[in-house]
Automatic annotation (TrEMBL):
It comes from Candidatus Beckwithbacteria bacterium CG10_big_fil_rev_8_21_14_0_10_34_10. Pfam families: Fe_hyd_lg_C (PF02906). Residues 31-250 form the Iron hydrogenase large subunit C-terminal domain. This is Iron hydrogenase large subunit C-terminal domain-containing protein. Transmembrane segments: none annotated. InterPro entries: Cytosolic_Fe-S_CAF (IPR050340), Fe_hydrogenase (IPR009016), Fe_hydrogenase_lsu_C (IPR004108).
């Protein structure tokens, strides 16, 4: 295909976010890739980090690290008032659903940062001058990024990261096997699986089984939200819009079943848990 035809095809098919990202990489801008914790479904570790660095990213951050901050804030909300009842959702689709369809539930929405925005704040703090680029399974994160213009987040999907690697001709390299995240934690790596927030935030130590609910998928969460309205003993609902959680997100390229995707996330968590050095308590990295 003629070069101009390829260029025209790319212009017509690339999202504005991917086009902008390719432009920023071409200009050698300082960028921090923030990989959502469902990345092992589509990309092997640590190869993906090496590829990101060779594509031109200065830093690679696990969004799981931001989820640690989300958890702290959710727990703080619950502890601040024994009567406090919240719908905790790092999911922008759920937030938009409540705003549009269930505005009576707005006062219950948690005020905690999502893992994406918390990660962007960490990037600003740890890597001054680097623009945060969220890479994940979610299309609606692109809208959430626009809700926080001060954080200057650019959001693309895993599917788009495949296109980016292809476009920049980033293939596998043996040097990719000795890389690691610049900011990481193992603690919240199950976040993309339904219930990941409750599991990693230690909610079972804080609330009884009667006081919280975990749910995902549109047809599943509506009845739970109804129950939350009626049953005042429920203090927390941990809810994600996609079936099974973010492992069911539309920006994932893999055609594996939900169970296979879930197993890949768990396998990464188990395999690298002891080998990876959590640095979420360090003041500087
Ligand atoms: S559950 Fe789906 S819509 Fe919600 S954040 Fe995850 S991928 Fe996005």
């Amino acid at each position: 295909m003629a070069a101009w035809l390829i260029l025209l095809k790319n212009i017509m098919t690339d999202s504005p976010e991917l086009s902008l990202l390719l432009d920023l990489l071409g200009k050698k801008e300082k960028l921090a890739a923030m990989l959502a914790p469902s990345f092992p479904i589509d990309f092997p570790f640590p190869d993906v980090i090496g590829k990101l660095k060779r594509a031109g990213f200065s830093y690679a951050v696990e969004v799981s690290r931001g989820a640690v901050e989300t958890n702290k804030q959710v727990v703080q909300e619950l502890k601040s008032d024994p009567l406090k009842r919240i719908i905790a959702s790092p999911c922008p689709s759920l937030v938009r659903y409540i705003k549009a369809q269930r505005p009576e539930l707005l006062p219950f929405l948690s005020q905690a940062d999502s893992p994406m925005t918390a990660s962007a704040k960490l990037v600003r703090q740890k890597f001054p001058g680097a623009r945060p680029v969220f890479i994940g399974p979610c299309l609606v994160k692109k809208l959430e990024a626009k809700d926080y213009p001060d954080l200057n987040i650019l959001a693309i999907t895993f599917k788009e990261l495949f296109v980016l690697f292809e476009r920049l001709k980033i293939d596998g390299s043996t040097e990719d096997f000795v890389t690691n995240f610049d900011l990481l934690t193992a603690h919240t790596r199950l976040y993309p699986i339904s219930g990941g927030l409750c599991q990693s935030a230690g909610i079972k130590e804080l609330l009884t089984d009667e006081e919280f609910r975990v749910v995902s998928g549109l047809d599943q969460f509506e009845p739970v939200l109804d129950e939350f309205v009626k049953n005042k003993s429920i203090r927390l609902v941990d809810v994600l819009f996609c079936p099974g959680g973010c492992v069911g997100g539309p920006g994932i390229k893999s055609t594996d079943s939900l169970e296979q995707r879930r197993q890949r996330v768990v396998k990464f968590w188990v395999t690298y848990q002891s080998a990876s050095k959590d640095n979420h308590n360090l003041q500087a990295v």
